[in-house]
Specification:
- With 443 residues, the protein is mainly α.
- Helix 17 runs antiparallel to helix 19 and helix 17 crosses helix 20.
Length: 443
């Protein structure tokens, strides 16, 4: 792969059209603007990141997480554009220098396909088909489609959301640039190649779209399977920005919620630095009279993010050839310096033990799982027997953009998944309560 071909302003659905622009925004800045002003992006404010949506203490939701990831992605991309521009003078003055904007836009979109209630929403959709009422569809759909829905994945769903032509919408979905779209496909292969982890990048319905993008950008296919592609290089930056933010910001949120003490939190964050730097940081806290524990954590967290950005940039530049050749393995975080990596691993272990298994998080996952399973059961039953009165009542609740009354069963099933996965936590709970008859609209 080569940078000159990898960075493209070509837009999905408008490949052969030329528009006269009346402002000075770059094509990749247009991508960001389209995402930020979209309804699916706004809905992220009411989707769980890790902790329950805020009560008296404000913690991260999918929207604030995506905005922070976008900021870190911009820093990663800009730093790498500068470093590689110095190594490859031929890239200076070209659109390669805009990779910060591409990564930033992709980071905004990276979680847009996630269903309500975090990862429990994903598992609830998968389980509905694997071991729930949806198992009845096993012999009625194709092998590829069955693989898609039993491995339902937020990453693949984001690619669908951005590229699929829903009813009444224009060709190309969001009509984003090829480079931005390629940057969100973390697992560039179909569900049939997902393996034990169950991760994949696109449903069969969007597979041809990804192949077209890969061909245009020169993304190489694997030698062992024509449907498995090398990662688009900027995917590593989107992944790194996400890894940095969710791990470090979850630590900060856990401190705010008193799941972690100040002593535990400061030890984890200061552990990224050697003793000399730690002493300088402690002295600065004292010199600047930062007495509030939350503000101290904010300062340490910002320092850690800055360090991780620097480390990931170093890894990317050092391994540029392997990344372009498609032979680089693992994430950028996997290859950072040992001390910093050890500190990151300590954070992940504490997160698993004390955060992700904390009572508030488990309560959301348990409730969310039940809500999603109930919604899926009701909606799939409705599309299987649409002639029933109750089925029609449910079907009429679905937005017209979803082709829920199509002749083809797979199209109807996918319409249900589109509808449910696009819900916010609050809307999913509202529909659940109405289906159960425990909530009535107040006029």
């Amino acid at each position: 792969m080569n940078w000159q071909q990898l960075i493209s302003t070509k837009r999905l659905g408008q490949e052969h059209r030329h528009f006269e622009r009346h402002d000075d925004r770059s094509e990749f800045k247009r991508d960001s603007d389209r995402l930020i002003f979209s309804a699916p992006f706004r809905r992220l404010q009411n989707k769980t990141q890790v902790f329950p949506l805020p009560g008296s203490v404000f913690v991260h939701n999918r929207l604030t997480h995506s905005l922070e990831v976008s900021c870190v992605g911009m820093s990663l991309g800009n730093d790498i554009a500068l470093r590689l521009g110095n190594l490859h003078p031929e890239l200076r003055g070209t659109i390669f220098e805009e990779i910060g904007s591409i990564v930033s836009a992709a980071c905004l979109a990276h979680d847009m396909g996630n269903p309500p209630f975090g990862h429990s929403g994903e598992r609830a959709i998968q389980s509905f088909f694997i071991e729930g009422p949806g198992l009845c569809l096993r012999e009625k759909v194709s092998e590829a489609f069955w693989s898609d829905i039993t491995h339902f994945e937020g990453n693949a769903n984001a690619f669908r959301l951005l590229t699929h032509r829903f009813k009444g919408r224009r060709e190309g979905g969001f009509v984003l640039t090829y480079s931005t779209l390629a940057s969100i496909v973390k697992y560039p292969y179909p569900s049939t190649l997902s393996g034990k982890k169950g991760k994949f990048g696109f449903f069969q319905s969007e597979e041809s779209i990804y192949h077209k993008i890969a061909s245009e950008l020169g993304i190489t296919a694997s030698s062992d399977h024509p449907q498995r592609f090398a990662r688009y290089p900027l995917v590593y930056l989107v992944e790194a920005a996400d890894d940095i933010c969710y791990e470090i910001m979850d630590i900060e949120d856990a401190h705010k919620l008193k799941i972690l003490s100040y002593e535990e939190t400061s030890a984890l964050l200061l552990g990224f630095f050697d003793e000399t730097v730690q002493e300088k940081m402690k002295k600065r806290i004292i010199d600047e009279q930062i007495t509030d524990p939350n503000e101290r954590v904010v300062y340490m967290r910002a320092s850690v993010i800055g360090l991780l950005v620097h480390e990931c940039v170093d890894v990317f530049v050092t391994h540029e050839d392997a990344i372009l050749n498609g032979t680089f393995t693992g994430s950028l975080i996997d290859h950072i310096s040992q001390q910093v990596h050890d500190a990151y691993v300590r954070c992940t272990k504490v997160s698993r033990k004390k955060i992700y298994n904390s009572k508030p998080v488990l309560d959301v996952e348990l409730s969310g799982y039940q809500i999603i399973e109930t919604l899926m059961t009701a909606m799939i039953s409705a599309i299987m027997s649409p002639e029933r009165y109750y089925s029609q009542q449910l079907i009429n609740r679905v937005s017209s953009q979803y082709d829920i009354q199509a002749e083809d069963l797979e199209t109807r099933v996918m319409a249900v998944i589109d509808f449910v996965s696009g819900m916010t936590d609050v809307f999913a709970l509202d529909i659940y309560q109405k289906i159960k008859g425990i909530s009535l609209p107040i006029v």
